[in-house]
């Protein structure tokens, strides 16, 4: 077997296999373990799908499985099944990051404003913007691509699990967001902007834990198809983020 290829080990496969779809009509699927391993390898390497190593089988089979399950929401469902926050999910960290989009990520078929195709952009640098919240251990809890020029923390809160504390940098220091956090029964730990009139006290010691979200972004961007977006469809890119998070945190 060629070195440098990714293969799910027995322990990792035992975790993910029970959540794969069963009882589907049609011909029998190819070896799930081999194909899922091939998909993960492609996310790590960032190579073109047609350059998928032959050890995983035909590249069309690898891509079609990834694309079909992304369209049906299978990858997101597997993530939600394995990434349920436990008792430690009471402190969340929130931040956003920019991701370079390759030119092949544009020009997909369909409506220009289709929700499956947007490249969420910041006007000054044209970078897709992903917003994510993380649990204390650095594990991602939710993901959003608001597609606007301002940070939309309230959109992520709608996806976040119950929490008691939310850590965020001063870019999220707004009365509306603070009020939303408090309405959800949590305490905002957010530094004050320099131009804020009403100063809010915050726990500086607790704020040091916000670095988990930075580490989370670093681990996700170890997957080259996450660090640079090549997918035309937003649903496929989101599926890739979910799968990368599973491998980085819940399958290791």
Automatic annotation (TrEMBL):
A Pfam short name: DDE_Tnp_1_2
InterPro entries per record: IS402-like_dom, Tnp_DDE_dom, Transposase_6_like
Transposase DDE domain location: 167-248
Recorded superkingdom: Bacteria
Disordered as annotated region, ranges: 104-147
Domain Insertion element IS402-like: 8-79
Entry-linked PANTHER family: BLL5188 PROTEIN, TIS1421-TRANSPOSASE PROTEIN A
Protein name: Blr1717 protein
Lineage: Bacteria, Pseudomonadati, Pseudomonadota, Alphaproteobacteria, Hyphomicrobiales
